[in-house]
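step=encode ok
step=design start
structure_in=
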């Protein structure tokens, strides 16, 4: 089929759409409502999912694996390890990750140190496995894990340079306040950055035990841990203070705790069970929403198939005359599919505008409502919105093509005389 023939068939399909304008308008309106509500639901669902995921990630760990003598801080929203000089071997992470039901393992190392000559606490973490530190990040520069991240209670300014055991480090991030004192009053850095601090101390001429500032009494979290001080240069980098665990959605806390209890010289601490159950149920909720949306789209596809089946059946005599005049079966199919694609494509464009109008109308109320629930609301990135809009238009066209394909294929296989002799309906 040449390009001119294809263009002629598309023009004929457009004329068919214009012949039954009211029907085409109603059919396009149905697609517009379905597509528009779907697009608005996608954007609002994305914002809700991101906000809920961020809120759940701020709950901290479901379980903590710590040395037996370690104290743990349990609050209503966050489970964190208290500053301690008790440690575990870092390679224990592999054994923990192999336990059924454990989805993520995030090691942390709590180290007392000196920042600007004042006793402070460093918490080293692995940015690639973290789920409890970066989720609280409120202000950051290009790459916050390259420097220090200040806790929510610290007055350090973003971009400021501070001395950590004599080594200059830049404040590249600032956390929000969690309400957990040891967490808010600490500095955070990656394990690689901690290794650089220790290496600097080993190369320097600083004494192994630096003088403790008179303000050490104001920092009880680091009292009694002088032998683990990063400024001594003797810190063992293959040890961690705690392993923070997130469980998979189907995991049972009791079973995981029983399996972890077989590890030597460890203590397993459980967080807030209600919050853990809520986080585990999030995936189930999202899967349910996807299934419901799929069923709704399937129903719309069946409805379109029925409508186009009636439209094609109404034109049996017309199609039969075209076939008798020399039109090929594939050309008849092309006309029917092009007509369906035009109606649903225009309906998809209108639906995109309708969905955007709905979102703009309720943007303030949605954001305010989510804020009252404690769930951050933010629009998806521009790339996601553009991809969503393109997907909506493509899907609306495909919906029309799929709905019209079966009736078009059926009429293709009928003989011209049978089509002409059939009664118009």
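sequence_out=
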């Amino acid at each position: 089929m040449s390009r001119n023939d294809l263009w002629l068939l598309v023009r004929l399909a457009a004329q068919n759409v214009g012949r039954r304008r009211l029907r085409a308008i109603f059919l396009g309106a149905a697609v517009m409502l379905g597509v528009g509500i779907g697009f608005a639901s996608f954007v609002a669902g994305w914002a809700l999912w991101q906000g809920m995921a961020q809120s759940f990630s701020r709950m901290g760990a479901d379980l903590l694996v710590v040395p037996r003598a370690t104290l743990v801080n349990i609050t209503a929203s966050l489970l964190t390890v208290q500053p301690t000089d008790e440690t575990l071997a870092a390679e224990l992470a592999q054994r923990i990750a192999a336990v059924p039901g454990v989805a993520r393992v995030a090691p942390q190392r709590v180290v007392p140190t000196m920042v600007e000559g004042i006793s402070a606490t460093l918490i080293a973490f692995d940015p690639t496995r973290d789920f409890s530190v970066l989720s609280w990040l409120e202000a950051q520069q290009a790459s916050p894990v390259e420097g220090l991240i200040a806790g929510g209670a610290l007055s350090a300014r973003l971009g400021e340079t501070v001395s950590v055991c004599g080594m200059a480090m830049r404040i590249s991030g600032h956390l929000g306040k969690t309400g957990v004192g040891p967490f808010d009053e600490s500095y955070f850095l990656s394990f690689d950055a901690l290794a650089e601090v220790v290496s600097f101390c080993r190369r320097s001429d600083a004494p192994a035990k630096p003088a403790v500032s008179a303000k050490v009494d104001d920092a009880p979290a680091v009292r009694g841990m002088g032998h683990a001080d990063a400024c001594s240069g003797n810190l063992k980098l293959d040890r961690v203070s705690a392993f923070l665990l997130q469980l998979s959605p189907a995991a049972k806390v009791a079973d995981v705790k029983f399996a972890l209890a077989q590890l030597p010289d460890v203590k397993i601490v459980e967080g807030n069970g209600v919050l853990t159950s809520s986080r585990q149920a999030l995936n189930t909720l999202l899967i349910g929403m996807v299934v419901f949306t799929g069923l709704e789209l399937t129903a719309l596809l069946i409805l379109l198939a029925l409508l186009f089946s009636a439209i094609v059946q109404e034109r049996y005599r017309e199609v039969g005359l075209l076939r008798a005049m020399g039109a090929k079966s594939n050309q008849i199919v092309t006309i029917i599919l092009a007509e369906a694609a035009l109606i649903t494509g225009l309906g998809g464009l209108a639906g995109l505008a309708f969905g955007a109008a709905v979102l703009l109308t309720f943007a303030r109320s949605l954001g305010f409502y989510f804020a009252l629930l404690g769930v951050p609301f933010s629009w998806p990135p521009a790339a996601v919105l553009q991809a969503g809009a393109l997907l909506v238009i493509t899907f609306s066209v495909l919906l029309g093509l799929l709905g019209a394909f079966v009736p078009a294929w059926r009429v293709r296989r009928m003989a011209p005389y049978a089509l002409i002799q059939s009664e118009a309906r």
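step=design ok
step=annotate ok -> The first strand starts at residue 63 and ends at 67.
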